[in-house]
Amino acid sequence: MQGTQNPPRVSPTEIYQRLKTMILSFTLYPGARVTEMELADHFGVSRTPVREALQRLAAEGYLSIRAKQGCFIRDIDLAEINQYYEVRIALEMRILELIGKQMPIPELHRLATMWDPERTPQRGPAVEMMVARDEGFHLALAAATGNAVLASYLKDVNDHIHIVRRLDFTAAERIAPTYREHYEVIQRLLARDVSAARTLLEEHIRRSADVAKEITLAQLASQRAKAWKLP
Amino acid sequence: MQGTQNPPRVSPTEIYQRLKTMILSFTLYPGARVTEMELADHFGVSRTPVREALQRLAAEGYLSIRAKQGCFIRDIDLAEINQYYEVRIALEMRILELIGKQMPIPELHRLATMWDPERTPQRGPAVEMMVARDEGFHLALAAATGNAVLASYLKDVNDHIHIVRRLDFTAAERIAPTYREHYEVIQRLLARDVSAARTLLEEHIRRSADVAKEITLAQLASQRAKAWKLP
DNA sequence: GCTCGATTTGTTGTATACAATGGTGCGTGG
DNA sequence: CCACGCACCATTGTATACAACAAATCGAGC
């Protein structure tokens, strides 16, 4: 609409990222249908770069391209989300093993300060802000392994559960426990007690997953109600 | 060449799979350059479906598309391969935890029979055959978790190390140990001793990784020697 | 003979025209 | 009133023409 298509032509990668953001933030809600022409007009380019972006998104499972019909944002499949969470636990458990004896103390202190329960924000921060902070915590642990491939797999898994995970923090009462649980994990790492850190982190992930999935069910119901009256 | 392009038009997905196979089997060796037109002619289609396949392969890291220059098969980066092996261990360790107490006995017996050391083939089977069997073993464990997402991540990791892993079995002396080690893991699972199974499986993976990486170094050297005299 | 620059060539990036096909709605017949 | 079939339309799949640009090549000048 607001024509910013003259000087910088929108690249396929940028289209990909913007579409992914729209999907992950529910701007394009599950089940919605988009056509290549629509998006091409929207971004001020031809169908070619749009197709490239859509194919990437389809390959990653965010939407499905049905031949001669259109592109449909994939429905949220809670059973599948559960499976992604299981993969996440697999990766994060190994991450703790890898960094347990080796992660530098200063870096641990930095995280501890960042998640000090006494600094829990009183009036909840913006949801997206909180999600980014949370994902940052877990990715920081991954990065500390020095294994970029491992970190990128965790990032990939995170993206796939992001759409659900962000709902965890719409419930304000999850913010304080998140601070406390993150802090506890760091304390165990400082004490070089990897086993305890593992137990705590797994419980933390499962707790947040449960809350997020619960909220998702409600969200989906209301989303369907909205979709009901559109046509 | 042998014109089979009339009745069935080659789909982008098929192009993708065939190219991937060519890369993983060293038919297109690391560093080689291919152009879209070349491949389009080869498969008897236009550049469009070829581009689709190449973009998927690039997204998965198998090749890099350099603007206005060409597509280059990615070099093998042994440090990166190491990182993939670490992810593989993370996933497989969790897989053992998940199936430990639950995998049905008959399925375990099936695998035990399949990898009975006494049935080790005397004159080595074809390398690709052995690799497929090996990957099948590990994917069978993954499938037994009932977690399709987890299994697909393991498959993805396997694909990325396949190019190196297959070399493990060019050394005939690795075949017997593979049978023995697989068999041992299954025995521990039958005894419901998950912890022992984990230890054995991790050692097994690390051993095969070490051999594979060693052979890769030699292979790369000879490959470079070949490439030397091509132009 | 050597160096630097313009031109040519080859390759990917983008736009567009055309082909193939699934879905929809309308009309007809029972 | 309902069921069935046919034509039209919307949408993706494919081919091709054109644009943009990097590298190599060739030539001119010193």
Radius of gyration of chain A, in angstroms, nearest whole number: 20 Å
Order of helices and strands of chain A: HEHHEEHHHHHH
Distance between the termini of chain A: 23 Å
Helix share bin of chain A: 55-70%
Largest interface: A-B, 23 and 22 residues
**Biggest β-sheet of chain A, characterized?**
3 strands, antiparallel
Our estimate of the beta-strand percent of chain A is under 5%
> Structural class from helices and strands of chain A?
mainly alpha
Description:
- With 231 residues, the first copy, chain A, is mainly alpha-helical.
- The first copy, chain A, has 9 helices and 3 strands; from the N terminus they run αβααββαααααα.
- Chain A has helices at residues 12-24, 36-43, 47-59, 78-100, 105-114, 127-144, 148-168, 175-190, 194-228, and strands spanning 33-34, 63-66, 70-73.
- The first copy, chain A, has a 3-stranded antiparallel β-sheet with strand order 1-3-2.
- In chain A, helix 4 packs across helix 6 and helix 8 runs antiparallel to helix 9.
- The first copy, chain A, starts with 11 loop residues before the first helix and ends with a helix.
- Chains A and B meet through helix 3, helix 4 and helix 7 of A and helix 3, helix 4 and helix 7 of B.
- Chain A binds a DNA duplex (30 and 30 nucleotides) through helix 3.
Which helices and strands appear, and what pairs or packs with what?
Two copies of one chain form a homodimer.
Chain A: H1 12-24, E1 33-34, H2 36-43, H3 47-59, E2 63-66, E3 70-73, H4 78-100, H5 105-114, H6 127-144, H7 148-168, H8 175-190, H9 194-228
Antiparallel strand pairs in A: 1-3, 2-3
Helix pairs in contact in A: 1-3, 2-3, 4-6, 4-7, 4-9, 5-8, 6-7, 7-9, 8-9
Chain A binds a DNA duplex (30 and 30 nucleotides) through α3.
